[in-house]
Design goal:
By secondary structure, this protein is an alpha/beta fold. The chain has one domain: Alpha/Beta hydrolase fold, catalytic domain (Rossmann fold, 3-Layer(aba) Sandwich), CATH 3.40.50. It is 38% helix and 17% strand. The chain has an 8-stranded mixed β-sheet with strand order 1-2-4-3-5-6-7-8, with helices on both faces. Strand 5, helix 3 and strand 6 form a beta-alpha-beta unit. The chain is globular and about 50 Å long.
Length: 265
């Protein structure tokens, strides 16, 4: 995967691109994953993978021009046009899955096959999404990873320890985390991580859709994946054992196989 910069309406966007074949766009979560992601490398054996960083994440500009999830959907539409994409396959994780769903309800003809991995975007009474803002990183790690020995989970716990009173933390270490949370808050602070209108619009999605749920996701309950699968025509729901919220990081090969089978199916 090579890194590029692309001029968009909101500013310059960081983009990773690799592989050859039919185009596939990966939309990241609020974690802003992408750099060195094995899952993307595996997909690039089967498709031309395009992984943009949303404004406010990485070095992507323009978050000040985006106020809500509708602005995010229009940004993606602009991105599609500038990349010359007609109806690419789309894989979205969590926040990225929500964005993909918003795009697919507004412009169904611009989304090919769709994979939503632990998608945010809905409000399910009694099965609310856990809080992500203001929580210690070690607590978040317990919800995001089934395997607490995963290197990223260990890093999150180390950063949590480093932020204790009296401990000096290099700003460059925490800057990406703070920027990602700030960008996510601009989109999803109120209402919290959902669009009240999205659920009733999901019937407009025309893409062959696979909904993937990490069996041990501690952040977004399975009821959300079930609601997506029930509302999108002909959608299928599968569980990934041994994975929590960040399935592409914990189970890259398993998820890549699911995506490849869905694209081929």
């Amino acid at each position: 995967m090579r890194r590029e910069l692309l001029d968009c309406e909101v500013g310059r966007i960081e983009l990773r691109r690799g592989g050859s074949g039919p185009p596939l766009v990966y939309l990241h979560s609020a974690s802003g994953e992408g750099e060195g992601l094995e899952f993307l490398d595996l997909l690039s054996d089967r498709a031309e993978v395009l992984a943009p960083m949303f404004p406010g994440f990485g070095s992507s500009e323009g978050i000040e021009a985006i106020d809500d999830i509708e602005d995010a959907a229009f940004h993606l539409l602009d991105l599609w046009d500038r990349l010359g994409l007609s109806a690419p396959a789309v894989v979205g994780l969590s926040l990225g899955g929500w964005m993909a769903a918003e795009l697919a309800t507004r412009w169904p003809e611009r989304v090919g096959k769709l994979v939503l991995v632990n998608p945010a975007g809905l409000y399910i009474p009694g099965a609310e999404v856990k809080e992500i803002f203001g929580r210690p990183l070690d607590e978040l790690a317990a919800d995001l990873f089934a395997d607490q020995a995963h290197p990223v989970a260990q890093l999150m716990r180390q950063m949590a320890s480093a932020t204790q009173p009296g401990t000096e933390v290099p700003f460059e270490l925490v800057k990406p985390v703070l920027a990602a949370l700030s960008a996510t808050a601009k989109l999803a602070w109120d209402p919290y991580l959902h669009d009240p209108k999205l659920h009733r619009r999901l019937g407009r999605v025309r893409s062959d859709t696979l909904v993937v749920h990490g069996e041990r996701d501690g952040l977004i309950p399975r009821a959300h994946a079930e609601a997506y699968a029930a509302a999108i025509p002909r959608a299928r729901l599968v569980d990934v054992p041994g994975a929590a919220h960040l399935v592409p990081l914990e189970k890259p090969r398993e998820l890549a196989e699911l995506v490849a089978a869905h694209l081929a199916g």
